[in-house]
Write a structure and sequence with these properties.
With 236 residues, this protein is mainly β. The chain has helices spanning 2-21, 104-107, and strands at residues 48-55, 58-63, 67-72, 75-83, 95-100, 109-118, 121-132, 135-147, 157-159, 165-168, 187-191, 213-216, 224-226, 233-235.
């Protein structure tokens, strides 16, 4: 089932691209590499943004309005797993990327990112929750205080082969921040699974830069991953 959803996601990407350039173009079924059947698993959702597989029959996904939801055996569980209350959902902000801990089967850790307001300014936070009894509980802040934006606010989360947490942040519509090593915007950040800073980060021992930074100079990265064959980092 997981492979099916991956294929569906890729098809939607290509279909969206085709629609963007040629609205009237239709792909004959005979021209498709493999036949697919599209089915609606849930409707009336508010900007579903990110999803992870809890197991082969259960998907955990975020809605940008602050709700974490479950799809179990192809059906939407009506009650939210979590509702973020101190969330800023203005424009493109809200509840964004999510990921599971590499040892989720043992510790049940789920990481989520979302925008909030501090002193009337938009901010970005990453927190860790524990999944138990179809609920997310025991919130622990991994990092916060990253400047948010109505547009370029990130944020994707992914654990790498090194068991470190990678976080994308947007430039908050201020490109100069992406080059500023004292700011966390326009960066790929790298943390230990408890929010501490790895000692082998590029700027871990440099007082002229934020030690959370792993890579900088990014506009608004909306996807990250790692090659299954060689572990190479992929950003898009």
């Amino acid at each position: 089932m997981k492979l099916l959803f991956i294929h569906m996601g890729l098809i939607l990407v290509f279909v969206s691209a085709a629609v963007a350039f040629r609205y009237s173009k239709k792909i004959p079924a005979a021209d498709m590499i493999e036949p697919y059947v599209f089915d609606t698993l849930a409707s009336n959702l508010t900007v579903p943004w990110s999803m992870v597989f809890i197991d082969d029959e259960t998907i955990l996904f975020s809605e940008r309005n602050g709700r974490m939801m479950l799809l179990r055996k192809g059906r939407l569980v009506p009650d939210p797993v979590l509702v973020i209350t101190d969330i800023d959902t203005t424009k493109k902000m809200g509840l964004l990327g999510i990921c599971l801990h590499p040892q989720f089967g043992q510790n049940k850790y789920v990481y989520i990112s979302y925008n909030y307001r501090r002193n009337n300014m938009a901010m970005l936070r990453v927190a860790r929750y524990t999944f138990t009894d179809s609920r997310l509980v025991n919130a622990e802040i991994m990092i916060e205080g990253i400047s948010g934006s109505l547009n370029h606010t990130g944020c994707r989360l992914q654990f790498g082969p090194d068991k470190k947490l990678y976080i994308t942040s947007g430039d908050a519509d201020r490109p100069v921040l992406a080059q500023d090593l004292k700011k966390l915007n326009g960066k790929i950040l790298r943390l230990n699974d408890d929010g501490t800073i790895p000692s082998d980060n590029p700027f871990a021992h440099n007082d002229t830069a934020r030690s959370e930074i792993w890579s900088y100079g990014h506009r608004n990265p909306q996807g990250i991953g790692f090659s299954a064959s060689n572990g190479r980092f992929i950003r898009f």
